[in-house]
Amino acid sequence: MLENDSGYVRANPKIYLSGVTLAWALATLLGPASTWFIATLLLLLIFDVARRKDQEHLVIAAGYACIGTTLDATLAKVGLLKFDYSPMPVYLMLFWLLLAICLPFVIAKMGKLFGLSLTIVAPLSYWYAVSAGYFSFGVESLTAVGILALCWFAFGQLCQQILIRLKNPHV
């Protein structure tokens, strides 16, 4: 536990960075089979945020999760992504929640590389998930990957700007 002179308990960024990395790998490699693993990781991180009484962190995370799930649901609605479940699989919703809780730490760690890395890694993760049969693209694969890269780049930029404007201590 990291505590400063005022008694405020800070988060250990390594916990969040490890959590999101593990969840991303599980979601990508196992698809729907990762649901319980991601749910467990998510609960552990929520308990950590609650233990620290960091309501601002939960509010920011809720906003990011809404943006992310809305993005994937919109991409499914317009036909870019085709999920077996409507609006999207549970494991992806849980992953978005977990990613949202971890984002301030990921952005702080990666800095300006955050948006660029999302632009590359996220579309490749979707492509792998489609190749593994977890869901499908509604358009040609290269077109879908390009559109996803643009969406994730925009998401990354939006997240960075929100944290900067809120003067978040993690950034």
Automatic annotation (TrEMBL):
Alphabetically ordered keywords of this record: Membrane, Transmembrane, Transmembrane helix
Superkingdom of origin organism: Bacteria
UniProt KW Membrane keyword: yes
Transmembrane spans: 22-46, 58-76, 88-106, 113-129, 135-155
Organism: Paraferrimonas sedimenticola
Record protein name field: DUF2878 domain-containing protein
UniProt-listed InterPro entries: DUF2878
